[in-house]
Amino acid sequence: YIDILTNSPWNVVRNKPETKAGAATSLVEGIVRESIELKQSGIIKTNALTRAIPFYEKIGFVEENGSGEFI
After folding, report:
1. Which of 4, 10, 59, 60 is most buried, by CB atoms within 10 Å?
2. Which residues neighbour 26 within 8 Å (Cβ) at sequence distance 6 or greater?
3. Taking Cα atoms as reference points, which of 62, 59, 67 lies closest to residue 29?
4. Torsion over CA of 7, 9, 12 and 13, rounded to 10 degrees?
């Protein structure tokens, strides 16, 4: 269980110092990978901030039953 997850704007993906693109996606991918390695489902659920919803949708999350939760 992760209570709060945030990505600071100064974080960058290694080998791409000229951009900030990809840092949050890499972080989410790492969480999914760790979940699978720990023999969990690999399914991640989030209560995203309104401004973050487009990001989660872009990387494949879908809203669950209109609840505001994305998996």
Report:
1. 59
2. 13
3. 59
4. 40
Query: Which tokens go with 44?
Result: 């991640």
Q: Integer distance in angstroms from the first to the last C-alpha of the chain?
A: 14
| CA dist., res. 37 & res. 50, Å (int) | 30
Taking the whole predicted model, whether its pTM rises above 0.85 is answered as: no
Between the alpha carbon of residue 2 and those of residues 17, 38, 61, the distances in Å are: 27, 15, 17
3-state SS track over the chain: CCCCCCCCCCCCCCCCCCCCCCHHHHHHHHHHHHHHHCCCCCCCCECCCHHHHHHHHHCCCCECCCCCCEC
